[in-house]
């Protein structure tokens, strides 16, 4: 293993310990030369690939990364031979096993609407940071098995982000808290309500003087009204709210600009020009991202009016990757930039013309002005209130308000400065003012700013009743006397507001697995109403709100639809203060050369740590780095080269006297002299998946600088193994033709709008597909009714222009197809199981590359190379052109994956599927086989969905309608990048897309005839910036080299 | 050098060659037969059930239609086993004190399901859909056998893949008109015993089968023998 590691180290050019700084510079010179010498775009997925080391080539040519096919576990050779001998002896006997006796357990009284074998769908909602996402939940005879978007709701339009989809696994998490606990002892709910009665009565007597309630951000109207009633009952009690990924700056920005709290909604369908000031609005943690992504992507069609995206960002993000023009800036520099922009738009202040980015700013300003009323400026959650106020002012100045920017009441019921709120609570705890503290679903002991020392304050507060209510017995529960197990949102009634203010109802899909209670029930219990059910509470609240005379009908319709009609907030007329706020002086980092600027971000997959025990999320490769199971800090390539750091090196960050140690990851496009750390990892108490995984960066975060600070960085001698899938499954693009002339066949293709207009076929012309009759394969005609009676030929297009790399398709595929989680050591050796992967390709200067995403499922080749080499016929073609995978035939030779040019086949090297845990048995999709060890598996276009639709249509004697079948990935996709359908039908959406000029096949010259094809990305760059950027790119490299020597 | 073996050994050695072939063949044939035997397939084997439910009595004796109990057979992949409530529709009126039916009444009282043994049990990697077979004219008893003559239920077929393919490779051998699907008395057409379909009388199953294949838009053999028809 040790030898293995050193070998893998060598793969990375920037990583070799022996190399001096000079060598680094030399390396870069080679890269620059390479960039300069290639005429077309040259794409790379990892920095290792860019440098083109021999080791990387060796890895690329392997079927699986080195080590994945070897037996690495500590079983002796002798033991291995014994086991093998036994299994060989038994191998011939497998067919002789009798089937075990199986049982049928029918209903006693079957519900009217249940048809065994047919799933039902219920509208509900999931919440993240207080914002609700409307969803549909698939239920198989009472077991929720999949979460999808609610197509009727404007915030979803059928798409579901990773967080809502993955919350399904959270419900079945076997490590969830299963009982109320008092000082470590199991208690009952009845016991709990009895026990708190006297103490609550005591508080009643003193008007709640010592009563404190701590919640996360809340948008639920019902819970808010309950809390108001609670505060009426205990008038001197205080309600605190805290979530570590708070939007305090957004709120403060709104107060600064309007003097009141308003919600900002964007209407991106009407935006021709979008400027993001460090706002990652295409990532699923941004409120409303599903809709924003939809609206943004709808304007990426080069045949219609395209939008243009400018991004100024401090942390490489999917939004930045999609940008036409991206400016990589440290977080502290964004404010100055926003001021310059405001000035050049004529909003006062002075534009700093000397800045090197002046050219960028001028072009943006002109473009924004030219599209007044059809442009939008979006400020990021982590940016200062001044930046938000500036964005409001610019939007107002450009006349965007009411068109692309709409203000409304706040979605959160009672928006407060959460950091201040928690600070006050910590203060009260320390001053021993608190007798009863109820913590509803928050986990401050883990995620509070470190300077508050919350755990310490809590433990020494002398509070007689500390109650934690949550899904897990987490770090906070440990320090509370009482813990009450919460019901998951799939187990309880509730409500919440979506980003547009509309109220979504949360409807339980299953009775609480562990008799957990909802927040509504707990708050009711605090008011002495411990017998009220969540359903009663919700219903009676809405009974008071309903305008319809016939409440029952209204209620049934509302529950059915999943949202309360007409509750979306109307636009609110607010005027931004005319004066542009004078910001604080920027670039604090510039002051001290030894300091580095630190940015804090929520993790793209496990959020604030709430998803830490969720295997799907842990193993989800994060959009830009494709990192799984860890949270290394990101540094830029320039900084890494200067400091001699390489990925996987440990560093110490010293922030205001506190030390944290964390591995680093060199992220292309990351600004220099800055480091980005991700919160949510390093959980101490969460469960079998998440405990002890990664590094806890909350320890480095203080309440006065929640999003950015400065630190002293010291490299350490240790390294830390990271499991990034970037670089795995790389497809070789460089080939030599018959005359030995090197050329490329890029798998990802893009062009500018101008190029597209002059030559729409640019993508197709990059590679030549052989004639149809040039093949040794059976040349099947799929439109021949003698071969394929119903005439369906399934195909897919993936629009690279629309894909924003949000990973929703990957989680959807996980959930739909019962894909196992393998764990970090297995990902390290390349045994991850994702059927669809989203590759990130970078292009150009590695300090500010442009990036593209490419989702890669099985291509369903008509001439499938995998089929010919299977010795047992376990992978064969269906008459509709699917590349079927027959799991029960597979004997695991892996010849097929060896022969797959697209590297989309996944092999169960071990029994990755958990067959024991009863909760997971309930979660699985009963329509898809569960694969065992030694079996190859892959995408089959969700053949289970095709089969159901075909059978239904045949029964009704009609054809399958276009759009009737949606694959799981297509359904979840917020940008409609994935389209599936019948390619034999010239009128189907997929046929029309395949007929477009920018449609191309990956590796077409191999004559595999893939059914999955791609639409090349067309970008709409600003001509003013376009020419300069090419020159600029090389000068930037020059600059970096000079700095280094 | 003297002969080590006596000449008569030649006979044994020749015989042993034949014996190896024969014994090997027999062993293979034995495994072949064993694999298809009721011991493996449970064909014709009854299994313990909570109530000795007689299809013979309910179907042949009382003339209850299949779909009275197996309600989802036309719409879903499962035919579905009836809930206790369905039993009690009648048995709250008749045989209310029969000792044999006590488990049924107990289930209804307590709300705990009756637990039946599965007889027609396909492997978990096979996805069979009842509704499409019913719809295309596959009779219930084509696969389930003479249910109306079974006092205790058993699987009438092996449910092995070769058995499935027998029909999927030539569906015309077994199809019948849709309105005969639930008819337990239905007999395939023969000379003198015609089956009428679409206003025509047929005396040959082959001919009738082809007419039904055309009328019911059966997919081609290439379609219905594609792996993903049954495996996913």
Describe the 3D structure.
- The complex is a heterodimer of chains A (1045) and B (232).
- With 1045 residues, chain A is of the alpha/beta class.
- Among the domains of chain A are: 355 residues, Alpha-Beta Plaits (2-Layer Sandwich); 146 residues, Dimethylsulfoxide Reductase, domain 2 (3-Layer(aba) Sandwich), CATH 3.40.228; 135 residues, Barwin-like endoglucanases, CATH 2.40.40.
- Chain A is 30% helix and 19% strand.
- In chain A, the strands form 13 sheets. Chain A has a 7-stranded mixed β-sheet, with helices on both faces.
- In chain A, helix 2 packs antiparallel against helix 33, helix 12 packs across helix 13 and helix 12 runs parallel beside helix 14.
- Chain B is mainly α.
- Chain B has a domain of 108 residues.
- Chain B has a two-stranded antiparallel ribbon.
- In chain B, helix 5 packs across helix 6.
- Chain B is extended, with a radius of gyration of 25 Å.
- The N and C termini of chain B lie far apart (68 Å).
Write the layout of secondary structure elements.
The complex is a heterodimer of chains A (1045) and B (232).
Chain A: H1 2-11, H2 21-37, E1 43-44, H3 47-51, H4 54-61, H5 77-91, E2 103-104, E3 120-128, E4 131-140, E5 143-149, H6 162-171, E6 181-182, E7 185-186, H7 189-205, E8 211-215, H8 221-233, E9 238-241, H9 248-258, E10 263-266, E11 273-277, H10 289-298, E12 308-313, H11 318-322, E13 325-328, H12 333-344, H13 358-370, E14 375-379, H14 385-397, E15 405-408, H15 418-430, E16 436-440, H16 444-447, H17 454-459, E17 465-470, H18 475-478, E18 482-485, E19 494-497, E20 503-506, H19 519-526, H20 534-545, H21 551-561, E21 595-602, H22 615-618, E22 627-628, E23 633-635, H23 637-643, E24 649-655, E25 658-666, E26 674-679, E27 708-719, E28 723-724, E29 734-736, E30 742-744, E31 750-752, H24 753-758, E32 794-799, H25 808-816, H26 824-828, E33 837-843, E34 850-856, H27 865-869, E35 875-877, E36 883-885, H28 895-898, E37 906-907, H29 918-923, E38 936-937, H30 943-955, H31 968-972, E39 978-982, H32 989-994, E40 999-1000, E41 1012-1015, E42 1017-1019, H33 1023-1044
Parallel strand pairs in A: 8-9, 8-16, 11-12, 11-14, 12-13, 16-17, 17-18, 21-26, 23-25, 31-42, 32-41
Antiparallel strand pairs in A: 1-33, 3-4, 4-5, 6-7, 6-18, 10-15, 19-20, 21-27, 22-28, 23-26, 24-25, 24-27, 29-30, 32-39, 33-34, 35-36, 37-38, 40-41
Helix pairs in contact in A: 2-33, 8-19, 9-14, 12-13, 12-14
Chain B: H1 9-35, H2 38-41, H3 55-61, H4 66-69, H5 84-91, H6 102-110, E1 116-117, H7 130-135, H8 140-144, H9 161-168, E2 195-197, E3 200-202, H10 205-215, H11 221-224
Antiparallel strand pairs in B: 2-3
């Amino acid at each position: 293993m040790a030898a293995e590691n050193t070998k893998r180290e060598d793969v990375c050019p920037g990583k070799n310990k022996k190399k001096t700084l000079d060598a680094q510079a030399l390396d870069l010179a080679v890269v620059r030369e390479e960039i300069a010498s290639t005429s077309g775009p040259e794409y790379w997925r990892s920095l290792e690939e860019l440098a083109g080391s021999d080791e990387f080539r060796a890895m690329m040519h392997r079927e699986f990364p080195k080590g994945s096919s070897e037996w690495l576990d500590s079983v002796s050779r002798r033991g291995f031979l014994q086991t093998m001998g036994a299994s060989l002896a038994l191998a011939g006997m497998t067919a002789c096993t009798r089937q075990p006796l199986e049982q049928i357990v029918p209903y006693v009284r079957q519900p009217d609407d249940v048809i065994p074998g047919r799933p039902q769908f219920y509208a509900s909602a999931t919440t993240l940071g207080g914002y609700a996402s409307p969803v549909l939940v698939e239920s198989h005879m009472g077991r929720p098995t999949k979460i999808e978007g609610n197509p009727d709701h404007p915030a979803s339009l059928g798409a579901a982000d990773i967080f809502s989809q993955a919350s399904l696994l959270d419900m079945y998490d076997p490590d969830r808290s299963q009982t109320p606990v008092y000082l470590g002892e199991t208690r009952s709910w009845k016991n709990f309500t009895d026990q708190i009665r006297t103490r609550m009565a005591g508080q009643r007597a003193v008007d709640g003087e010592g009563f404190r309630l701590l919640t996360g951000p809340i948008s639920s109207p019902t819970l808010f009204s309950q809390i108001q009633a609670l505060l009426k009952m205990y008038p001197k009690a205080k309600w605190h709210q805290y979530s570590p990924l708070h939007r305090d700056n957004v709120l403060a920005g709104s107060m600064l600009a309007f003097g009141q709290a308003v919600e900002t909604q964007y209407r991106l369908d009407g935006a021709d020009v979008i400027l993001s000031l460090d706002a990652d609005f295409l990532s699923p943690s941004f409120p409303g991202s599903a809709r924003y992504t939809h609206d943004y992507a709808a304007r990426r069609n080069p045949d219609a009016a395209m939008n243009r995206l400018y991004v100024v960002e401090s942390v490489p993000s999917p939004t930045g990757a999609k940008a036409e023009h991206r400016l990589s800036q440290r977080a502290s520099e964004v404010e100055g930039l926003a001021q310059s922009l405001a000035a050049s738009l004529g909003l006062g202040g002075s534009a700093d013309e000397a800045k090197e980015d002046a050219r960028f700013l001028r072009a943006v300003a002109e473009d924004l002005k030219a599209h007044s009323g059809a442009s939008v400026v979006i400020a990021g959650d982590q940016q200062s209130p001044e930046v938000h106020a500036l964005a409001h002012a610019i939007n107002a100045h450009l006349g965007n308000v009411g068109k692309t920017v709409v203000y409304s009441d706040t979605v959160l019921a009672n928006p407060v400065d959460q950091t201040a709120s928690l600070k006050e609570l910590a203060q009260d705890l320390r001053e021993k003012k608190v007798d009863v503290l109820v913590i509803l679903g928050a986990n401050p002991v883990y995620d509070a700013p470190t300077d508050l020392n919350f755990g310490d304050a809590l433990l020494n507060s002398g509070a007689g009743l500390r109650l934690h209510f949550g899904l897990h017995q987490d770090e906070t529960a440990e320090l509370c006397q009482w813990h009450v197990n919460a019901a998951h949102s799939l187990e309880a009634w509730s409500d919440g507001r979506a980003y547009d203010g509309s109220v979504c109802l949360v409807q339980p899909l299953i009775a609480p697995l562990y008799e957990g209670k909802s927040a509504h029930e707990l708050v009711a219990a605090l008011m002495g109403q411990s017998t009220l059910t969540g359903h009663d509470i919700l219903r009676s609240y809405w009974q008071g709100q309903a305008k319809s005379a016939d409440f029952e009908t209204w209620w049934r319709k509302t529950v059915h639809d999943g949202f309360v009609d007409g509750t979306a907030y109307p636009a609110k007329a607010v005027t931004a203060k005319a004066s542009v706020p004078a910001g604080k002086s920027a670039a604090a980092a510039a002051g001290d050369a030894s300091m580095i600027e630190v940015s804090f971000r929520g993790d793209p997959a496990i959020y604030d740590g709430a998803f830490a025990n969720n295997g799907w999320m842990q193993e989800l490769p994060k959009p830009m780095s494709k990192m799984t199971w860890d949270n290394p800090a990101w540094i830029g390539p320039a900084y890494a080269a200067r400091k001699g750091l390489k990925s996987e090196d440990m560093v110490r960050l010293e922030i205001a006297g506190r030390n944290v140690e964390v591995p680093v990851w060199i992220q292309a496009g990351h600004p220099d002299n800055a480091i980005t750390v991700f919160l949510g990892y390093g959980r101490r108490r969460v469960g079998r998946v998440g405990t002890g995984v990664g590094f806890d960066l909350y320890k480095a975060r203080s309440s006065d600088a929640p999003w950015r600070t400065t630190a002293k960085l010291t490299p350490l001698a240790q390294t830390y193994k990271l499991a990034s899938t970037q670089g795995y499954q790389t497809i070789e693009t460089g080939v030599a033709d018959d005359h030995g002339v090197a050329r490329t066949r890029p798998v990802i293709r893009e062009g500018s709008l101008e190029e597209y207009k002059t030559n729409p076929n640019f993508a197709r012309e990059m590679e030549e597909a052989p004639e149809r009759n040039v093949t040794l394969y059976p040349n099947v005609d799929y439109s021949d009714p003698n071969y394929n009676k119903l005439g369906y030929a399934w195909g897919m297009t993936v629009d690279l222009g629309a894909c924003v790399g949000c990973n929703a398709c990957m989680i959807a595929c996980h959930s739909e197809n019962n894909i196992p989680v393998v764990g970090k050591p297995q990902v390290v050796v390349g045994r991850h199981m994702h059927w669809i992967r989203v590759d990130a390709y970078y292009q150009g200067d590695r300090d500010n590359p442009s990036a593209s995403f490419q989702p890669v499922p099985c291509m369903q080749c008509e001439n499938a190379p995998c089929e010919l080499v299977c010795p047992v016929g376990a992978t064969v073609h269906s008459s509709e052109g699917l590349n079927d995978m027959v799991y029960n035939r597979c004997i695991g030779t892996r010849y097929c994956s060896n022969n797959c040019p697209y590297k989309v086949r996944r092999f169960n090297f071990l029994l990755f599927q958990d067959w024991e845990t009863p909760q997971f048995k309930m979660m699985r999709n009963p329509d898809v086989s569960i694969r065992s060890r030694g079996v190859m598996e892959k995408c089959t276009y969700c053949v289970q969905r095709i089969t159901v639709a075909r059978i239904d249509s045949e029964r009704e004697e009609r054809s399958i309608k276009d759009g009737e079948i949606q694959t799981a990935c297509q359904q979840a996709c917020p940008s409609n990048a994935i389209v599936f359908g019948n390619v034999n039908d010239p009128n189907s959406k997929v046929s029309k897309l395949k007929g477009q000029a920018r449609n191309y096949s990956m590796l077409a010259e191999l004559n595999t005839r893939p059914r999955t094809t791609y639409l090349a990305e067309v970008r709409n760059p600003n001509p003013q910036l376009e020419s300069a950027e090419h020159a600029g790119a090389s000068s930037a490299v020059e600059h970096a080299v000079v700095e280094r020597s | 050098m003297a002969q080590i073996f006596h000449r008569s050994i030649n006979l044994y050695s020749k015989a042993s060659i034949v014996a190896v072939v024969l014994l090997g063949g027999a062993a293979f044939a034995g495994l072949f037969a064993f694999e298809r035997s009721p011991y493996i397939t449970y064909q014709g084997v009854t299994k313990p059930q909570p109530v000795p439910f007689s299809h013979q009595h309910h179907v042949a004796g009382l003339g209850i239609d299949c779909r009275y109990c197996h309600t989802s057979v036309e719409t879903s992949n499962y035919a579905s086993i009836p809930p206790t409530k369905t039993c009690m529709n009648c048995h709250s009126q008749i045989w209310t004190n029969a000792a044999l039916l006590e488990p049924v009444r107990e289930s209804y009282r307590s709300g705990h399901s009756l637990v039946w043994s599965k007889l027609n049990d396909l492997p978990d990697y096979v996805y069979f859909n009842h509704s499409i077979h019913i719809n295309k004219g596959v009779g219930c008893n084509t696969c389930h056998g003479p249910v109306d003559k079974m006092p205790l239920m058993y699987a009438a077929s092996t449910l092995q893949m070769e058995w499935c393919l027998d029909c999927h490779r030539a569906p015309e051998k077994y199809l019948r008109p849709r309105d005969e699907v639930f008819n337990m008395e239905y007999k395939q057409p023969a000379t003198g015993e015609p089956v009428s379909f679409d206003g025509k009388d047929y005396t040959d199953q082959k001919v009738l089968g082809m007419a039904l294949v055309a009328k019911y838009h059966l997919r081609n053999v290439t379609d219905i023998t594609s792996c993903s028809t049954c495996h996913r």
